[in-house]
Amino acid sequence: MFKEFKFFPEQASTLAGEVDLLFYFLIAVSVFFSSLIFFLIYVFAVRYRRRSEDEKPQQIPGMLKLELAWSIIPLILTMIVFVWGATIYFDSYTPPKDAMEVYVVGKQWMWHIQHPTGQREINELHIPVNQPVKLTMATEDVIHSFYVPAFRVKKDVVPGRYTTMWFEATKTGEFHLFCAEYCGTKHSAMIGKVVVQEPAAYQDWLSGGTQNEPLEVIGEKKFQQFACQTCHADKPNSRGPSLVGIFGESIKLQNGQSVVVDEEYIRESVLEPNSKVAAGYKPVMPTFKGQVSEVSLLQITAYIKSLAKGGSN
Amino acid sequence: MSTAVFKPRPDQMGDNNEKKTSYLTAGFNIRSWLLTVDHKRIAILYLLSLTFFFFLGGMFAVLIRLELITPAGDLMQAETYNKMFTMHGVVMVFFFLIPSIPAVFGNFLVPLMIGAKDLAFPRINLLSWYLFMFGGMLGFAAIIFGGVDTGWTFYTPYSSTYANSNVILAALGAFFAGFSSILTGLNFIATIHKMRAPGMTWFRMPLFIWAHYATSIIQILGTPVVAITIILVALERLFHIGIFDPKLGGDPILFQHLFWFYSHPAVYIMILPSMGVISEVITCFSKKKIFGYEFIAFSSLGIAVLGFLVWGHHMYTSGQSIYVSLVFSVLTFLVAIPSAIKVFNWTATLYKGSVSYDAPMLYAIGFIGLFTIGGLTGVFLATLGVNVHVHDTYFIVAHFHYIMVGGAIMGYMAALHFWWPKITGRLYPEVWARVASFVIFFGFHLTFFPQFIVGYLGMPRRYHAYPEEFQIWNILSSAGASILGLGYLIPLIYFIWSLKYGERASANPWNAKGLEWEKADSPPTQFNFDKTPIVDQEVYDY
Ligand SMILES: [Cu+2]
Ligand SMILES: [Cu+2]
User: Fold this and answer.
1) Per the structure, how many domains does chain A have?
2) What value does the mean pLDDT of chain B take?
3) Residue A189 belongs to a domain
4) pLDDT score at A1
5) What is the mean pLDDT of each run of 10 residues along chain A (313 residues)?
6) Given this model, what pLDDT does residue A54 score?
7) Residue B311: what pLDDT?
8) What is the DSSP string of A30-75?
9) How far out from the chain centre does Cα B306 lie?
10) CA dist B396 to A237, B401, B448, Å?
């Protein structure tokens, strides 16, 4: 009935070992302190048990040195743990430059995943081993949370914005993917698996299966479908600014500030076009809120990103 | 030169025979209870209502644990299961744990311990019980009319836009219970400031009073914020005013900030009074002055203040800025220190004491054992790198049950056993009480320890069905829960039994120090003391 009697989860990412090491350290510290306290209570309880009703124990109101000691030693220990934990957290936040990008959209109650090459999958994520992967995530409805225990990573997927996370798998195999934030009736069915493959097998997987167009090509179609190019054609006197080469660049806004164009900025430009208006243009762009789904938006974003690579319209 | 020791006990029919009616016999009809302004009777009203809610919440827990015995969701529908854990949380948090010790023991003991006749505002005290009951009834109505399924945390936009259940009713229930909590806090602060008997200086106050003072501050400062938040959720749900749902122009994370700004300190509303109880019990049953009185008193205040600055530790994975997370993490580590200090101080109090093991002491030692584990695992969660993995898994569930059940409820049980003779004038069967304390302690560990393991393995919380590899830990946990449930039923039986058959208690059955024991009868008379006591001893003058 029970295949295994496990205490610790599998380590399948570069992060897993680091997190576990700190976890073991915390266990060691905890075991030390709780044993100390339980031992003392036990010893005092036995040694000083009441022998007669009218015993008058010697009164000890306190001892400043001792009390300072047991305030300061835990303080130092916790600060060590703080720095250690913060370092891991920092690393887990900054994806390496060469990370492969995958787009995730959560939706009651499934995970919709799109690869740059156009492959789409539901509740499964195929990735190559030993390759950093960065996820850009959105949700069509409520908050979800993308959780892969074997990688020790988790990130909430929050409506109204993109969140990102990254990891690098170190082992091939299949690992649980859970939704960790309660999201309604079938929350516990919003699960799937991450399939980590050798690079060659991964390439096979990419080329196999249904015919897929790359994401940016789908995105270009959507771009036309929503008639974005009527204003954003890359030629002078267009009503809207050219989108060629803007990704990753810093652009000027009407109010004098400037912003770096990233996924979040593109998303905001499409859904709340008037909140940040590009300098030199009138706020005539209509909002596409409610018309364009998160999935399409990510495709359009991929298209705009591809324009940055020097491709032209 | 303690005068109290040589005085005849007030219960040995002595000099004054005119004022011998206890608060319990001051009136028998239902009116005399429902319209009472006596803090002790109001405490009894709370005791009865809270007992009801405790077992109601417990019933949901039983159903949850039954469902989780098998990996498949076979006992009930997912929707029903979601309602079970929501209602378990809502009832236990808002209608049991938050009021628990302050409403019952605080109400009963604050005036008695400081030598006052009643709280500063007796009518407001009664009002707060009615508000609580009104909130409780709304919450109960939410259950009867089909339940709520948002989780007790009411996260938006699920609660404000997507959920199809009685969110408003349940939230309003919490809202009114919150008002009751504010009024209780207000009453305690005014009472502690203004009604102390002559000679009861701040540093002669029992630590129970310090703990309630700190708790009251949190109740007054924190509860209004959650009340406003609840109203905002209701506005968005009813009138589609965009506050939290981005589709309406709102921000879902704003809700989390507001919610945890109250709900983290709320954890201290639950645990601080319990710590106050433990200080009283430990000193009494080791016949010792508390070790480091000032450290304990100020650590309560420290917790109350710092507790307001750590809410973001619930949101490390929410996408909040890493720098914000960093600040919240460091502050969370700091707030752990005062709790650690208390544990060390209690332990040191036993040193060279005269320690006896009556039931209240067993519960108090149980508290230290469980709270230590709860607190240490809190340090795991404060740690950024580790939190990301265990957040929203059973590790969290285990941690907060160690604090809230292992800590807060153990303290509540210790209080119940310690002051039961004072409240009812009866003794309970000591042997059964000791047996129950062991059953609870053992059942508790078996229920919740496996959840740490299954949580680290990656089992998310609020899962109706789960992968098979997690089953063994869930079976252990459910087995533990059945023992724990039994552990709570035994006291229910012997306490009720004792009301009629229990031996009569003397005024001070434990030979404890403190005005409630030395200067008041068991049960106390209507106005607590025959004449205003004058305090000329230091606190815990054993
Ligand atoms: Cu979910
Ligand atoms: Cu908290």
Assistant:
1) 2
2) 92
3) yes
4) 43
5) 73 95 96 94 90 80 84 93 94 89 93 88 94 95 96 95 94 95 94 94 80 81 87 81 85 87 89 86 85 87 78 42
6) 79
7) 93
8) HHHHHHHHHHHHHHHHHHTB--STT--PPP----HHHHHHHHHHHH
9) 19
10) 58, 8, 11
Burial class (CB in 10 A: 0-12, 13-18, 19+), A105: buried
Q: How far is CA B307 from the centre of its chain?
A: 16
- Same domain, residue pair A164 and A29: yes
* CATH code assigned at A196: 2.60.40.420
Q: Give the other-Cβ count within 10 Å of B15's Cβ.
A: 7
Task: Kindly report the nearest CA distance between residue A255 and chain B, in angstroms.
Answer: 22
Quote the pLDDT of residue B16: 46
Gap from CA of B271 to ligand 2 centroid (Å)? 12
Boundary (domain end) residue, out of A178, A211, A244: A211
Q: How far is the CA of A191 from the centre of ligand 2 (A)?
A: 27
Residue B37 Cα to ligand 1 middle (Å): 48
Tell me how many residue pairs between chain A and chain B have CB atoms under 8 A apart: 282
pLDDT for res B385: 92
Q: Which ligand is nearest to the CA of A189?
A: 1
Q: Which of B287, B376, B462 sits opposite A187 (nearest CB)?
A: B462
Please tell me the distance between residue A187's alpha carbon and the centre of ligand 1 in angstroms: 4
End residue of a domain, out of A168, A194, A211 = A211
Query: B-chain residues within 8 Å CB-CB of A6?
Result: 457, 469
Answer whether residue A59 is part of any domain: no
Domain spans, chain B? 30-518
* Residue of A223, A214, A212 lying closest to A300 (CA atoms): A223
Instruction: Tell whether B287 lies on the interface with A, counting CB pairs under 8 A.
Output: yes
Range of the domain at A146: 8-35+69-211
Nearest CA in chain A to B350: A44
Band (pLDDT 50/70/90 cuts) for residue B370 is very high
Same domain, A101 and A150: yes
CATH code for residues B30-518: 1.20.210.10
Res B7: pLDDT: 42
With CB atoms and an 8 Å threshold, state whether A59 touches B288: yes
